[in-house]
Amino acid sequence: MATLLVNDIAALPANDDDAAPLVARIPPIPPRLKPHGPLTAYRLRRFYAMMALVFAAGIAPILLGMNAQWKAFGLGLLFPGAGFLYAGSALSIAFAVAAFAAFAVIMFIWWARGVILGPPGVLVGTALLSAAWIEGSAGVAWMEPAIPAAVVAMHLYFAVKRRATFATQQARGAKLNAEITQVAPILRDHPVTAAPEMPASQIKEYRRMLDLALQPVDSWEGFSTDDTWQDGALRYQICTMSWNLSLGQYTQLPAFHGYLNTAQENLIRKHIDRKTWNYWYWESLWGNLKPDKNPVHIDNIMLTGFLGVSLGLFETASGTSPFKDDGALTFRWDDKTAFPYSHSTMLKEVVKNYKRYDLGWFPCEPKWIYSMCNLVGRTSLALHDARHGTDYVGAISDRFDHTMHEEMMMADGRIKVCTSTPFGFQVPSLSGLFGETWGIRFMTPYAPDQAERLWQVLKQDFIRVTDDGMLDIKLLPLGWDTRKPADFSKWPELNPMIMVLWSSLEMGDEEVIAATRKTIDAKYGEGIADSMTWSGRNTVRNMVTKGLPEAWATGPILADAKYPEAIVTRAVTDGTALNLVVHPGDAPCRTELGFARLVPGRSYRLKQADTLVLAGADGTARATVSLDGRTELDLVPVG
Fold first, then answer.
1. Can you tell me the mean pLDDT for 253-281?
2. Confidence of residue 8 (pLDDT cuts 50, 70, 90)
3. Per-residue pLDDT for 547 more than 90?
4. 10 has a pLDDT exceeding 80
5. pLDDT category of residue 113 using cuts at 50, 70 and 90
6. Among 357, 364, 491, 499, which Cα is nearest to 427's?
């Protein structure tokens, strides 16, 4: 894979598309002398102290010479299933395997659902069962010292392995620093420009999303309801469509409102429907040990942060703010219980939650912090600040950035994806290509230097462009990298590839973009990459930091079109004229278009239809056009 070095920048040929780098140099990975930051280290010490107390309780029956039942119970606390092993029979060994399997399953459920009492409950429960099982029998005497010794040896092994891993990360970080600091930054301060019109595969996905979004808000036809909790949950289906439509509006359709705005408003209203957030009552109950019908005020950044980005992207792309008033976002539990918010007051709860934790980050599932979710939450605040002049980010940024650098960044420059808030340990299998590329486009608005560094680190560790221009990726087992996507594909590798595509598009890494698109289409069908491409270089950054250019914010727009009669695939204004590309829906037709933000009383010509249009006193006008296929239309002022 060709890499542009810092010294090569001056040798680049001049062209009209030259733009200044957003950062002068990619910063080095900060050196780490300790594997954990102070807040994480404190949590880990507390966790190990709890483990030591459990260990002491487990060996106490042996040291005190208690009966076999007590010894089985104690050994069962040291390791899941160990009490059954102590019983010694073949059937007992089978029960020990079952107890260990049950513990492994509940550990997964603890992560996936936040059931914090699940692991200790299963551990104590299986220990009690082993005590009941051994009643009236003597245990295997040699196991009384052997099992505790094995548990100690296991923890010593893990401790040595953690130290070795940290040393490897330090060495890897030093090696990477020698390389990435010599690489020229990719991000450029390009002006905001419109992308080309949608290709056929993107139009197909566009119509799929519109079909889902334009049905009545209380109708869920076409949505998957198989997964309430994880990747395929309604909240993620909704926000993925909401984000893509907003990104598409900003890049290809900034001069079209009409049913595109309606679709995005509908998706936001679906996001606040109880069907989308009902999960929180249960997660709060078994994770925070508190029945809570309000999904906004405590934790749950996977709802509020993601919805906040949907709101902010929609406001930015459309220039409208339909959810700014009190009660516009009402989370209704039933006829008697509702939680009314506005866009602003909901984000005040996000700020409050950031401040609740000494880490300055807050959980998705109870007691689990995800880096990508907190980057999304930060972006939701930044979008609101940019559009409304608030300073929500200012209230949390110092602690947020400190945690990123000291607690979440590892010695090799990679980022922890999932961390336990009470205990400090991370879930390593969730890191990797998918989990870490996920957040890059939400880093570019506020920390382009960190986005550059992380992108280069991930390229070094996981991404390679082959000689034939294909993408070769390294995937980590047992985690998100190889997990089957929940609702849009049957191919596991497509998940991380789409994250690579979205990150490389935001970064403007043309070589990786081309290789990823080529590989996706080769593996999964021609046009799949187009259907997943809704943004371009700096799109998220520009939406936060620049918003709509003046011409887009004030120029003529297509305010109304009939769906699915007229499929609008491009709409751009230069401030005075309007360029459209419209396709017929299911068959050629004549359809009426409504225009707005015209100069009152001025005449316009719809060039291709050779039709004169007179703007009314309110700056609106209507015209009927024929759609026999792809139809390009230019509305230009006369005289």
1. 97
2. very low
3. yes
4. no
5. confident
6. 364
Averaged pLDDT, 39-47: 97
pLDDT, residue 495, reads 85
Q: What is the DSSP string of 551-603?
A: HHHHS-EEEE--TTTEEEEEEEE-SS-EEEEEEESSS-EEEEEEEESPPTT-E
Whether the Cβ atoms of residue 627 and residue 586 lie closer than 8 Å to each other: no
Question: Do the Cβ atoms of 364 and 376 come closer than 8 Å?
Answer: no
Asked if the model's pLDDT at residue 212 lies above 90, the reply is yes
Alpha-carbon distance values, 553 to 250, 257, 408, 540 (Å): 11, 12, 39, 17
C-beta separation of 455 from 440 below 8 A: yes
- Both structure tokens of 382: 């930044």
What number of other Cβ atoms are within 10 A of residue 201's Cβ? 18
Q: Which amino acid is at 49?
A: A
DSSP 101-164: HHHHHHHHHHHHH--TTHHHHHHHHHHHHHHHHTTTS---TTHHHHHHHHHHHHHHHHHHHHHH
C-alpha distances out from residue 153 to 50, 104, 120, 158, 378, Å: 18, 20, 22, 9, 43
Task: Give a three-class secondary structure readout of 4-70.
Answer: CEHHHHHHCCCCCCCCCECCCCCCCCCCCCCCCCHHHHHHHHHHHHHHHHHHHHHHHHHHCCCCHHH
Query: Could you read off the pLDDT of 133-158 as tens digits, one per residue?
Result: 998 889 999 999 999 999 999 999 99
Cβ atoms < 10 Å from Cβ of 57: 13
> For residue 605, what are the β-bridge partners?
612, 636
Confidence of residue 431 (pLDDT cuts 50, 70, 90): confident
* Burial grade of 462 (CB within 10 A; 0-12, 13-18, 19 or more): buried
Spatial separation of the C-alpha atoms in residues 406 and 33, rounded to whole Å: 11
Residue 150 half-sphere exposure toward CB, CA atoms < 13 A: 12
pLDDT of residue 116: 92
* Spatial separation of the C-alpha atoms in residues 638 and 447, rounded to whole Å: 46
Spacing of C-alpha 618 from chain mean position: 42
Largest CA-CA distance found in the chain, in angstroms, rounded: 103
Average of per-residue pLDDT values in the chain: 93
397 Cβ contact partners less than 8 Å away, ≥ 6 residues apart:
378, 446
Sequence length of the chain is: 639
Closest C-alpha to 23, from 177, 192, 183 = 183
**Rounded CA separation 375/435 (Å):** 12
SS (H, E, C) 375-433: HHHHHHHHHHHHHHCCCHHHHHHHHHHHHHHHHHECCCCCECCEEECCCCCECHHHCCH
Q: List the structure tokens of 589.
A: 């037709």
Q: pLDDT tens, 362-408?
A: 999 999 999 999 999 999 999 999 999 999 999 999 999 999 999 99
The helix/strand/coil state of 369 is strand
Which DSSP string corresponds to 282-314?
A: HHHHHHSSS----SSSSS-HHHHHHHHHHHHHH
Tally DSSP H helices, then E strands, for the chain: 22, 14
615 contact partners, CB below 8 Å, separation of at least 6: 595, 598, 599, 600, 601, 602, 603, 604, 621
Cβ-contact 636, 607 below 8 angstroms = yes
